[in-house]
Specification:
Layout lengths: L1 H16 L2 H6 L4 E10 L2 E13 L2 E14 L2 E15 L2 E11 L2 E10 L4 E6 L3 E4 L18 E3 L6 E16 L2 E12 L11 E7 L5 E7 L3 E11 L1
Antiparallel strand pairs: 1-2, 1-14, 2-3, 3-4, 4-5, 5-6, 6-7, 7-8, 9-10, 10-11, 11-12, 12-13, 13-14
Length: 231
């Protein structure tokens, strides 16, 4: 037990002392991730991630959707498409287009090498942020080591705080994982139930693949890993 605690502490130390670049490069051999989305344990949608490495460039393309119906009435229809492009680990570009019912949101983000900043044009925020900023798409485990994240839906910059809750064994789709469990909260003075972010996220201890996420908002939502492929 003592050895396990030492390994966990060492793991967190390494996360805190590595550059954001190394975290992206960690996924060079990743090809595909697919998640199922549940609301109150009922399957309502999916989210698919396609990864492709071409020379110095690393591409992440996603497609996610879900529908919420009650008594035959369509309460929510959500669809999002995104693309991330990295060069040697540095985020170069991110775009997203999201439709929630009839409301459209977007993000167009690019790295300005000359000024060493990330420029954001989003439906909720337009401005600049530092070059190490990360988009809140969760596949990249280094998000748990950041003080802020950029909303993948609207471009808003959200301060966050993260608590490591330990290593736990969890079962998803009849597969067992040794998981690292984190609690992520918006870093503001609002009560927990009104925070922009209040969720639990699990990463596989061996591969650092995102395997599960859960949060409560008018019900219990869960992302569960369905499929993972490597080159």
């Amino acid at each position: 037990m003592k050895k396990i605690k030492i390994l966990i502490i060492l793991f967190i130390f390494l996360l805190n002392n590595n550059s954001s670049f190394s975290h992206v490069n960690h996924y060079d051999n990743l090809k595909y991730l697919e998640y199922e989305l549940y609301l109150n344990n009922a399957l309502i949608g999916s989210h698919k991630f396609h990864f492709n490495k071409k020379g110095e460039l690393f591409y992440v393309v996603t497609d996610g959707h879900f529908k919420v119906n009650k008594l035959g009435i369509n309460l929510m229809n959500y669809h999002t498409e995104t693309e991330e492009i990295y060069q040697n680990g540095q985020l170069l570009k991110f775009t997203s287009n999201t439709t929630q019912n009839d409301k459209k949101k977007y993000v167009n983000l690019s790295f300005n090498k000359k000024e060493n900043v990330i420029e954001i044009d989003g439906s909720s925020f337009k401005g600049k942020t530092g070059p190490s900023s990360i988009v809140g798409s969760w596949w990249n485990h280094s998000i748990i080591n950041k003080k802020t994240q950029i909303s993948a839906v609207s471009g808003r910059i959200i301060p966050q705080k993260v608590k490591f809750l330990g290593k736990k064994k969890i079962n998803i789709n009849d597969k067992n994982f040794d998981a690292l469990h984190f609690h992520v909260l918006s870093d503001d003075n609002k009560p927990d139930e009104k925070k922009k972010i209040n969720l639990h996220v699990w990463y596989d201890k061996e591969t650092l693949i995102w395997i599960k996420m859960s949060y409560n908002k008018l019900g219990r939502w869960e992302y569960r890993l369905k499929k993972q492929l490597f080159y």
